Amino acid sequence: MLRSLAAVVLVLGLVGFQMTTAWNGDKLDLLERVLKEEVEESKKSGDSTNLPIVGKITWQSSTLGAYSSDKAVDGSSSSNLYPSQHCSHTITAARDPWWMVDLGSNHCISKVRILNRGDCCSERLEGAVVRVGPSVTGTENWACGSPVTAAQAAPSGGTIEFTCYPALKGRYVSVDIPGSATLQLCEVTLEEIPLSQCPVPQPFNVVGKTAEQSTTHGAGYTADLAVDGSSSAILYPARHCSHTVTNSNHPW
């Protein structure tokens, strides 16, 4: 990049030195080549570019009235649910609501932006998680960035940005809110880097890491048994599985 900038300065210096003469084709060609190389170098470095998703196939866990999932990728910048109807909306207080878009093929997603509702109830987006990956079941894919905080959800009509670090390879991008919630999205936009530059996810060893759960069933089925390294799927009598009290909320 420094070499390219130096070349640009050199060309401009030559031009300034010869102001009394017309530019010849060689100087124009040189400047054009330098600028083209700069663009190509930027692409190779993994800079994000917009990924058009307007009109892509979408679906969601439930739909309130006319506010279908495709409203979140209709290209509108309106953040008003009513009467413009440019936002998607699940039924109110649904269990684990989610929304998903099918990109049609794998892409390397670097950023996701959500335009929050502007005419009411922006706080509903608190806790939302963005995921990217190969599975049509969104919760099986990797999380991009962190869940939406109360401060991020508070501004009416605000745009919330999720940075996938590292960038994530996948065909499906989803948004979900764990628990009882209402999911409303007025527009979702994406950025990507070249697929050839996408990092490969590496397994992470969690055996022996600190684990907690909301409740524990009996005396032996503690949270740490879920990260004890055992491949046993038998709860009893092996005791290699964690177990909460039945019907616990947010169990592990």
Automatic annotation (TrEMBL):
The keyword Metal-binding applies. SUPFAM superfamilies: Galactose-binding domain-like. GO terms for biological process: regulation of cellular defense response; regulation of complement activation, lectin pathway. Residues 54-196 form the Fucolectin tachylectin-4 pentraxin-1 domain. Pfam families: F5_F8_type_C_2. Keywords: Calcium, Disulfide bond, Lectin, Metal-binding, Signal. Acts as a defensive agent. Recognizes blood group fucosylated oligosaccharides including A, B, H and Lewis B-type antigens. Does not recognize Lewis A antigen and has low affinity for monovalent haptens. This is Fucolectin-like. It comes from Acanthaster planci (Crown-of-thorns starfish). The lineage of its organism: Eukaryota, Metazoa, Echinodermata, Eleutherozoa, Asterozoa.
